[in-house]
Design brief:
This protein is mainly alpha-helical. It has helices spanning 37-41, 77-83, 86-95, 101-112, 121-126, 134-144, 158-184, 197-206, 217-229, 237-246, 252-263, 271-285, 291-299, 320-335, 342-356, 358-362, 369-380, 387-408, and strands spanning 5-9, 18-23, 31-32, 61-64, 69-72, 75-76. Bound molecules: s-citryldethia Coenzyme A (SDX). Residues 233, 236, 267-269, 271, 298, 306-313, 363, 365, 368-370 line the site of s-citryldethia Coenzyme A.
């Protein structure tokens, strides 16, 4: 990174000013390189929530929150969602370029031949209650993978990173489907090597040993698009978790398990589940007629009610993924004859009202990827508690690509933020009878 311009920090107490290089990216905000700040001034910056902090440099995903733009390795998400499938997108995120015919065939074969999990993995599931949340199961299963693959645990080795990436991408669908089958008491369905990635997942989810499972191409394509739209998203909370976790040198399975755990939160990947639950609640209370009442609660500072599926730390315009997800919604509901699905109609009514309401307009709160993804998944037959597990399945490739980029950066160090200490100064312990 070259720095043509400099930033000067001066202090009103007469402390000497200090200069910092300003780095320009290919596109997007410049950064002020403050790595020498503490050494030069004995001071830290203060930025809880990292509202103004770039934690790394990256070539993988670019988001322009004002334009509502999302690029994977420079390609607009709108073009990838229409022209590519999920495994092509995985190849792109991992390698920086879209695969040609030969490269795609080799990559698909590699992933396909790693879709099975060790037979022992099924015994992890038996330890859970059948009604365990799928994200509790997934956090356990993904972390558990690190007990099975000693030959791909060392992230410092490029070959081991590559094989663990393939294993994780390949096995996530199998594990998510196992978590689902376990929750409904049906036998696990083994992956098949003659099916595409997304078709394989649909079959593992919905087939049963008593009859042939008939794939619905519209639903398979919808699932594949859901995977593409959720694959990566710059330095979001779970990706930053994976980077920080992996920076200790831990194995890739443990680092991805940390990402799964973080994604579970309702402010993050758990929002699609929370959004569907919110729509169900409004529906139960009377549907469209009750939207006004609900919006009033959302605007009431004393209520902790939020419009789930709306708002974003970066997008201050419409999330481009939400637009594509809304299209997929229409396609799936039409294919299933659910055009009059009350939940979808309620979501569209809620979106229209919210987009015209000053509270949301002023705060630039637009629908995000989670607003429609839940409705599509529900229409496909995915149970609501499994939505975030499917988000984790898709985001695994993004987490891995970001982990690999960090580990391959010769400048990378273990992440170790500091703090502004506001607690007690040093004091002496009193004996128990004097406290
Ligand atoms: C994902 O980071 C990523 O890239 C994440 C993600 C990815 O792909 O990895 O895109 C996936 O996590 C999408 C976001 C899913 N979350 C939700 O849909 C949950 C609902 N949304 C919010 O909780 C919230 O919008 C966040 C957490 C997403 C973003 O919050 P910010 O940027 O920290 O904004 P904020 O909490 O500071 O809110 C600013 C104002 C506040 O009002 P004021 O105090 O200024 O009066 O907007 C209000 C908030 O109260 N606000 C909302 C709101 N979101 C923000 N009010 C009502 N409903 C909401 N959803």
């Amino acid at each position: 990174m070259t720095a043509e311009i400099k930033a000067t920090l001066s202090f009103s107490d007469g402390s000497p000013s200090v200069e910092f290089p300003v780095h320009k990216g290919t596109v997007g905000p410049d950064v002020i390189d403050i790595r020498t700040l503490y050494g030069k001034t004995g001071k830290f910056t203060y930025d809880p929530g990292f509202l103004s902090t770039a934690a790394c440099n990256s070539k993988i995903t670019y988001i322009d929150g004002d334009k509502g733009e999302l690029l994977y390795r420079g390609y607009p998400i709108e073009q990838l969602a229409v022209n590519c499938d999920f495994l092509e997108t995985c190849y792109l995120l991992l390698n920086g370029e879209l695969p040609n015919v030969t490269e795609k065939a080799a990559f698909v074969k590699q992933v396909t031949t790693h879709t099975m999990v060790h037979e022992q993995m099924q015994f992890f599931l038996r330890g859970f209650r059948r009604d365990a949340h799928p994200m509790a199961v997934m956090t356990g299963l993904v972390g558990g993978l690190s007990a099975f693959y000693p030959d791909s645990m060392n992230t410092a080795d490029a070959k081991e990173r590559e094989i663990s990436a393939i294993r994780l991408i390949a096995k996530m669908p199998t594990m998510v489907a196992m978590a689902y089958k376990y929750s409904i008491g049906q036998p696990f369905v083994h992956p098949r090597n003659d099916l595409s990635y997304s078709a394989n997942f649909m079959r593992m989810m919905f087939a049963n040993p008593c009859e042939e499972y008939e794939l619905n191409d519209v639903l398979v394509r919808a699932m594949d698009r859901i995977f593409i739209l959720h694959a990566d998203h710059e330095q979001n909370a779970s990706t930053s978790t994976v980077r920080l976790c992996a920076s200790s040198g831990t194995n890739p399975f443990a680092a991805i398990a940390a990402g799964v755990a973080c994604l579970w939160g309702p402010a993050h990947g758990g929002a699609n589940e929370a959004c569907l639950n919110m729509l169900s609640d409004i529906q139960a209370e009377g549907g469209v007629e009750k939207i006004g009442e609900f919006i009033t609660k959302v605007k009431d500072k004393n209520s902790s009610v939020r419009l789930m599926g709306f708002g974003h730390r970066v997008y201050k315009n419409y999330d481009p993924r939400a637009k594509l997800m809304r299209e997929t919604c229409h396609e799936v509901l039409n294919a299933l004859g659910l055009q009059d699905d009350p939940m979808f109609k309620l979501a569209m009514a809620l979106e229209k009202i919210a987009l015209e309401d000053d509270y949301f307009v002023q705060r630039k709160l637009y629908p995000n990827v989670d607003f429609y993804s839940g409705i599509v998944q529900k229409a496909i037959g995915i149970p609501v508690p499994l939505f975030t597990a499917i988000f984790a399945l898709a985001r695994t490739v993004g987490w891995i690509a970001q982990l690999n980029e960090m580990i391959s950066d010769p400048e990378y160090k273990i992440g170790r933020p500091r703090q502004l200490f506001v607690g007690s100064e040093s004091r002496n312990v009193k004996p128990l009878d004097q406290r």
